[in-house]
Write a structure and sequence with these properties.
Elements lengths: L7 H17 L6 H8 L3 H7 L3 H24 L8 H16 L1 H5 L1 H7 L1 H27 L12 H19 L9 H17 L5 H15 L2
Helix pairs in contact: 1-2, 1-4, 2-3, 4-5, 4-8, 5-10, 7-8, 8-9, 9-10, 10-11
Length: about 220
């Protein structure tokens, strides 16, 4: 029997909570704040989520589904496909991580609220880096990146890319406003760090095309 679809209030609570956690910080936002922002009673929130951290658990579940879906899409890109689809995939991943940035910015606080969250986050990272490793394999098979050599194996490459993306997302929020909106700044920052790390992995043609693509979106 298929799982019952979440009702409208459940989804509204998730969406509004994520917006408030990103804007005000998960530490400051209370269940009462969320209820007031949605013009519903606190009991309506706790009917679906007993505690604030339970909302975060549900948001992390949603992030994992969306991120794995993106990575799976990349795994099925074939060599005959325009490499720009590969670049756009990395942009989409960066934008997705930015939308869920509060999770990464407050991971220690969330773990202090509920040690099970830390365990759940570790499992989430394992699932993501497994999917990333499959994406790395596909990119090697397509001839887009060079095969890694010991001690830089596929697992280490996947882990490092993940850490680079997360660090770039977090640090970009501290950068001064340069006329771009914060999401665009964050995405461009993540891509520049991605490019810097991958310089020795991309073949020359791929690297030059990546560089031109990055220059183009940096002016958008």
């Amino acid at each position: 029997m298929p799982a019952k679809a979440p009702n409208r209030n459940y989804l509204r609570i998730l969406d509004k909570s994520m917006e408030m956690f990103n804007q005000d910080g998960v530490i400051r936002v209370t269940v009462q704040n969320i209820a007031e922002a949605l013009s519903i009673s606190p009991g309506n929130v706790t009917y679906h989520f007993k505690k604030k951290v339970d909302i975060v658990h549900a948001i992390l579940d949603r992030l994992e589904r969306e991120l794995i879906e993106l990575l799976d899409r990349g795994i099925h890109l074939k060599s005959k496909v325009d490499p720009e689809e590969h670049y756009e995939l990395v942009v989409s991943i960066s934008r997705l991580l930015w939308r869920y940035r509060f999770i990464f910015n407050f991971i220690l606080y969330l773990n202090s609220l509920d040690p099970k969250f830390g365990e759940r986050f570790k499992l989430f990272q394992e699932h993501v880096t497994d999917a990333m490793m499959a994406l790395v394999d596909q990119s090697i098979n397509n001839g887009w990146i060079k095969k890694s050599r010991a001690p830089r194996d596929r697992r280490l490459l996947s882990d490092n890319l993940w850490y680079i993306w997360l660090s770039a997302i977090r640090v970009s929020e501290l950068e001064p406003d340069n006329g771009k909106n914060s999401e665009q700044r964050s995405v461009v920052s993540a891509l520049k760090h991605h490019m810097s790390y991958m310089e020795n992995y991309y073949d020359e043609k791929m690297y030059q095309e990546w560089d031109a693509y990055l220059a183009r979106i940096d002016t958008d």
